[in-house]
């Protein structure tokens, strides 16, 4: 019975506790680096030192940073190829944590606005590299049939702590607007502790994985970009998946930046309420729904999974459209809960979905690199496009900017419908 309950005892008893502990400590640092938290900081503390357009564009950049910094993932994958992924992840976690200390030193001036934006991007660049390489570790250490549940267990702990940390920062800033100058360095110290703890992580068959990567690197004879393009040309189903994710993801990636601006400018929400709606409530709900989505992902292909999971995002963004357009403040809170459910499934699919296309461990890094790089491109463009659309609507008629959320809703709905069509087509091809 014991063997059946724990078929991979080394993973369950050795790897998971270290992953959980390290991710829990890192989550405190990432709670301070959430787009909703730093976006609220920019909007409430720097609004008087720069023009509204530049402040809102800064909000778009810091809110989109967790996504668009993934454009560096291919570079990190290339640099770490053939090396010890655990050492790389440890170093990148430490850099991410140190950026929090630097961020807390920014003056409340136009220069400080630039400094906060750049430091946030630097921190998220480091974290983008860490999660790209961590995906390789998780693939090596956690077998396919339990991977989503293992990842889900880590994600639940991670998300609850981020939600709590973000909420505490929002509450503290409601009492003392400069509380971030103390709390951000404290969060950074927690991140450094997480990096220290991760030093001992081992990778199953790590030596073999490094040799395979070194061999592939030596025989490939072409750039990582060329190899990525080759995969997208050759793997038709992965290409279709990436194109659909680009449409779908562009919709949900612009929502947080727009919510930060709309809640502040159109509805006058207090700092704490802004953080609760954009960060704390979605992440707390994410923790509840992650195990449910994990069981679904373990049992099915990513396209079938996305054909169902995508509708959670359609529901969430639809609720925000109604809340903003109709002036129903209370509906923002319902939308935040729905967004958490959507993020629960979305994060699992984002971390693990590429594995249903990658043929082996050595290709997993490249497939993940393609995925997160494309996420980065839309993470840069989508929030900026959303904010510029908001500014245009406001310039035409003050108050009409609240309807800008129709834009991401249409993109999200189009992506969900395409996932349904792709899943059906794939099933028909398999039967034929």
Kindly describe this structure:
The protein is mainly α. It contains 18 helices and no strands. Helix 3 (35-45) packs antiparallel against helix 4 and helix 15 runs antiparallel to helix 16 (329-352). It is globular, with a radius of gyration of 21 Å. Mean pLDDT is 86; it is low at 6-10.
| Shape, principal axes of CA atoms | globular
Protein structure class:
mainly alpha
- Mean pLDDT, rounded to whole units? 86
Distance between the termini: 41 Å
Count of discrete alpha- or pi-helical segments spanning 4 or more residues:
18
Rg on CA atoms, Å: 21 Å
The percent of residues in helical segments reads over 70%
Number of domains: 1
CATH architecture: Up-down Bundle
- Classified by CATH, the class is Mainly Alpha
Q: The CATH topology, please?
A: Growth Hormone, Chain: A
Oligomerization state: single chain
Strand content: under 5%
**SSE sequence, one letter per element:** HHHHHHHHHHHHHHHHHH
Give a summary of the structure in a few sentences.
The chain is an all-alpha fold and 432 residues long.
